[in-house]
Structure formats: structure tokens, C-alpha cells
Specification:
The chain is of the alpha/beta class. The protein is built from 11 helices and 18 strands. The strands form 3 sheets. The protein has an 8-stranded mixed sheet, sandwiched between helices. Helix 9 crosses helix 11. Bound molecules: zinc ion. Zinc ion binds next to loops.
Length: 423
């Protein structure tokens, strides 16, 4: 009895040591990858300066270092509008800051010159009056300024401002709250007239703007998914751990979107999970997939779902980890219909171990890489940190290493690990 007690005590001490050393190692590993992916070397993991592909090459090496059995790259092509060069704007002669005061709509062409500004009267809005004003000589070749959601509510009138033969305005400037965001989801085309996002403070009362912005449309640009495999004892089914490693790239040659939360955080998580399973051999085969093209509208995951390297029916469960570099103790989840049974298991584990205060399940949406799999009936879950202190920086230049938060890494890691052991 006494010997058993001593044994249990030693075992408990060893286990605590084992668990903490393992976790500490994981967190160090995790942070190192988040820091690297957010560094200037990868220029926001976009396309203009090949940052995404450079990050993909780095991840290929990291997966191998993690001890996986093999890594393959799955190439695919996309069309994408980029801003690789000049990115300058002046408002009444005052130079504005790219990424802070203004940014470009993802499908905007480049723009050069000086333009009078027409401020839309949103308090007494009359579309006929607006078009009558814009027909006056002083507003020929002007930039029309309006709050974005207002233009959305009156999109019938405002869409005419985009058509070259319907109005003589040079372009549109949408106001948007600070810090200014940049999206790339619809960058697969370029529209006729420039569209600029700006903070209300930067354009208030301004009479003219000067712009010098280069764009470059890349057709059939080749990028790739990085797929690492850890062999299990059985090969008839498998688990998939996915995260996108691309981000928004450059806004001109000097500004880039580091994307520490979106999604260096999720990418680093799947690399450390790969390292864990390379050491702790699983029952089933495991694939760790870093997707490219996500912020360009789920292009990498869509390609994989159409051209899977393992039959989709063999996937026991898919975990898509996106933006967990935050500190809200609530985890946001989405599942496919087929993933619902698994969600009950996640809840059971979370109730037992209290990894998160709650798992908040929302409606399935086309907002990340689980979606192409969910619509193809793969059991899957999307894990994302509910809006915490990092969230205001979403798709801004401030989503960087300095603002990265690490609270959610361990709970997500353990939640997924426990799920695999129990499912
Ligand atoms: Zn994003």
C-alpha cells in the first residue's frame, strides 16, 4: 500500500513535470512560428511580393522539423489584384498614411492625379440632386465621398457612380471607421473606377485629393497548399487539421498586413499539433494542411476540396483553426451538419476541463476554410476566438506580433487533442 502511494506520488510528480514541460515547449514553439510568419520577411503573406509562397516554403521546412512523415505542396492558380508600388494620398495638400488614414478597395485600379471632392449630403439625400450636382463642370472628374453603409443602403444610385458612361466622377471614396481595414476577398477582378477607404477624420471638409497608387493584376498566379502527413496505425480513415497561412499582403511597397492573429496563430497551432502527433503516434492517419488563398476567398481550401489527396469520405473529422491569437475566454465554433455529433463531444470535454468559459456555436458560413468541406458533408468544426482585445485590429496593419495574444493557444490545442482521443 505504502509502495503504491510512493509510486503514485512519483508518477503524479512525473506526469505534472511531463505535462508542463510539454506545454511550455509547445508555447515556445508556437510563439516562434507566429513571430516568424508575422515578420517583414513575408510581407503580410500576400502575392505582390511573393510573401505567401515564401511562407509556404518556410512551413514545409517547419513541418519536416516537427518530425512528420512527409510534406507535399499542392499548387493551384488564382487571379488577384495587388498593390505592389506607389501608395500615396494627399488631402488638401496634407499627406495621409497608407493603412492608417486610407486603404484601397481590393478590386480598385491604380489612380493618379488631382481630383475635386464631392461630399454626399446624407442628411437630405436626393439621388437626382446628386447626379445634377455631379453634372456641373466643377465636379467633372471628381471623387465622390460618402459613408460606406449609406452607399450600401442606396446601392441602386451609387452603383451608377461605378459605371464609366453613367457619371463623369473619377472614383469613389468610402468613409469607414478607424483603424482602416483592407479586404481581399473579391480581388479576383478590377473595376473601372478607383475605390478608396478613408477614415471620416481624414476627409472631413476636404476640397481636393491627390493620389498616386499603383495596382498590378496578377493572372493565373501560382500558389500552393502545404500538406504534412503523420502516419497512424490505421489508414482507412483520417483526421485533418487545417489553417490558412496566406494573408492580405502589401498596401504599396512600404506597408504590409502582418496577420499575427489572422492567421499566423492558427497556422502555428497546426504545426505544433503535427509535432505532438509525430511524437505520440495516432491511431489514424493525420493530415496537417496549411492553406493558401483563404483571404482571397477560400481559394486553397476550395481547390483541395475539389482535388482531395485523400477521399473526403475517409475524413473522420476536420478541425479548421482560424484567428485564435486573442484573449476572449469564449471560443466561437461552426460545424457542418455531419460535425454536430462531434460538437457534443467537444462540449462534454469542455465541461469537464473548463478549457473555455463556453463554446459558442454559430450558423455555418463561408467565412473560412472549413466551408468547402462542410458543404461536401465532411464532419468538421471551425474554431475561432470570440472577439477579444485583438479583434479591433482584424484586417488592419495593427494585427501584428506586438498585438498578438497567446491565451487561446493551449486551450485550443488541448480541446482538439482530447477530442481525437475520445471521438
Ligand atoms: Zn482574414
Amino acid at each position: 500500500m505504502k509502495r503504491l502511494l510512493v509510486f503514485l506520488l512519483v508518477f503524479a510528480v512525473f506526469e505534472t513535470f511531463h505535462e508542463t514541460s510539454l506545454q511550455a515547449q509547445d508555447l515556445v514553439h508556437y510563439k516562434r512560428i507566429v513571430k516568424e510568419l508575422s515578420s517583414p520577411k513575408y510581407q503580410g503573406r500576400g502575392y505582390a511580393r511573393h510573401g505567401a509562397n515564401k511562407a509556404g516554403k518556410y512551413l514545409e521546412k517547419e513541418f519536416l522539423k516537427a518530425g512528420v512523415d512527409e510534406v507535399v505542396c499542392q499548387p493551384f492558380k488564382l487571379d488577384i489584384n495587388t498593390f505592389p508600388g506607389e501608395m500615396k494620398m494627399w488631402a488638401d495638400g496634407k499627406r495621409l498614411k497608407a493603412g492608417v488614414d486610407f486603404s484601397m478597395r481590393e478590386y480598385s485600379p491604380g489612380v493618379y492625379g488631382e481630383f475635386p471632392v464631392y461630399h454626399v449630403d446624407t442628411l437630405n439625400f436626393d439621388p437626382d440632386q446628386m447626379f445634377a450636382d455631379l453634372a456641373k463642370p466643377e465636379y467633372a472628374n471628381c471623387m465622390v465621398v460618402c459613408e460606406f453603409w449609406f452607399t450600401y443602403r442606396h446601392r441602386e444610385a451609387f452603383s451608377r457612380l461605378q459605371k464609366p458612361d453613367e457619371c463623369t466622377n473619377a472614383g469613389i471614396i468610402y468613409t469607414w471607421t478607424s483603424p482602416i481595414k483592407f479586404y481581399k476577398a473579391y480581388g479576383h477582378r478590377v473595376v473601372d473606377k478607383p475605390i478608396i477607404w478613408i477614415t471620416p477624420e481624414a476627409i472631413e471638409g476636404v476640397k481636393s485629393v491627390r493620389l498616386k497608387v499603383d495596382n498590378k493584376f496578377l493572372k493565373d498566379y501560382e500558389c500552393f497548399n502545404v500538406i504534412a502527413k503523420v502516419q497512424g496505425r490505421r489508414h482507412d480513415s483520417c483526421y485533418l487539421f487545417t489553417a490558412h497561412y496566406d494573408h492580405l499582403g502589401n498596401l504599396g511597397r512600404n506597408v504590409y498586413y502582418a496577420g499575427a492573429n489572422d492567421n499566423a496563430s492558427g497556422t502555428a497551432t497546426i504545426v505544433t499539433l503535427a509535432a505532438y502527433y509525430a511524437k505520440n503516434r495516432p491511431e489514424y492517419d493525420m493530415y496537417f494542411i496549411a492553406f493558401s488563398g483563404e483571404d482571397a476567398n477560400l481559394r486553397g481550401s476550395e481547390y483541395f476540396a475539389k482535388n482531395p489527396i485523400v477521399p473526403l469520405e475517409q475524413i473522420k473529422y476536420l478541425f479548421n483553426i482560424d484567428m485564435i491569437g486573442d484573449d476572449n475566454p469564449v471560443q466561437y465554433c461552426e460545424t457542418s451538419d455531419e460535425g454536430l455529433r462531434g460538437f457534443a463531444v467537444f462540449e462534454q470535454i469542455n465541461n469537464e476541463y473548463r478549457y473555455f468559459k463556453a463554446l459558442n456555436r454559430g450558423e455555418l458560413a463561408a467565412n473560412s476554410d472549413h466551408y468547402p468541406f462542410a458543404v461536401r458533408h465532411v464532419p468538421c468544426i471551425f474554431l475561432e476566438n470570440q472577439e477579444g482585445s485583438a479583434y479591433p485590429y482584424y484586417h488592419t496593419i495593427f494585427d501584428n506580433w506586438e498585438h498578438a495574444v497567446f491565451d487561446s493557444y493551449k486551450p485550443v490545442f488541448k480541446l482538439v487533442r482530447d477530442f481525437v482521443a475520445r471521438y
